[in-house]
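$ run holo --ligand "zinc ion" --emit tokens
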Amino acid sequence: MSYQTQTTGTTSWTNPERCPFCDAGLEDGGWGFIAHVRANPQCSTEYDMWREQIAGDMGGEWGG
Ligand SMILES: [Zn+2]
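-- output --
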């Protein structure tokens, strides 16, 4: 088994200034994304699934 960082799962987040789900530009890589997700139910759903997948893979919390 090889251990991968960052690229685990189906979403490859290559640019923190863009939403990985809908490719929209974000004002700020941190809070801009949170605000974007809250304003876009579709992205919110995908973000939740992505986060759960990361948590499942890592077996712990995913913190910034
Ligand atoms: Zn989005």
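-- notes --
The chain has two helices and no strands.
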